[in-house]
Amino acid sequence: MRFIVKTCPQRSGYIPYLKERIPNLEVVLDPGGGVMDCFQESLRVAGDDAVVHLEDDIVLTSNFCEKALAVIADFPYVLIQFFSMRKKDLEIGSRWESGRTFLMNQCVYYPEGMSRDLLDYSEAWFEAGNGKIATDDLVALYLRNRGMDYYLHVPSLVDHRVGKSVSNPRRSSRRQSLTFQP
To answer: Is the CATH code 1.10.150.20 the one for domain 2-160?
Structure first.
């Protein structure tokens, strides 16, 4: 399984921690256009392969790779989200969600072919003159327009580090999972 992390110069200090725990981790550095440009570059790098896409500002659960691969083995053909902050996580646990509800790109499995299809979708979105959009909003639109649901795994296998968002510094610095177990 390929694991790809997106990062930028101001967050490159997080990468050694992740590489220690994910030996085959591939790093995609922001080519200079910001969060969306880096996201699209990570989709290009993934090509048609099945990939776990990661953001750099995460903390991993113990035995992260083994846990992620076990869930992927059960659902190899669907998008799987491994991070969430929703109250339903405590009440319901793992579940299927409508694509339009997708939120947070901290750790997401894309099955074979989905990274390239999402890249094509994103390029068409911007070529059509649509404005700036957050990466998770783009994924939600993609899933909704494709009529796809996704699987949300609980407990979260990663947590969001406390800190300012690079894409939107006005966001809360405390966007942590309710179910993460270190």
So the answer is: no
Intervals of the chain under pLDDT 50: 171-173
- 54 forms beta bridges with 5, 107
Instruction: Report d(CA 111, CA 77) in Å as an integer.
Output: 5
Per-domain boundaries in the chain: 2-160
Task: Look at the pTM and tell me if it is higher than 0.85.
Answer: yes
DSSP designation for 93 = -
Residues 67-85 as b or e (16 or more Cβ within 10 Å = b): bbeebbeebeebbbbbbbb
Taking the C-alpha atoms of residue 108 and residue 139, their distance in angstroms, rounded to an integer, is 11
* Cβ contact 46:4 at 8 Å: yes
Are 59 and 12 a contacting pair, CB within 8 Å?
A: no
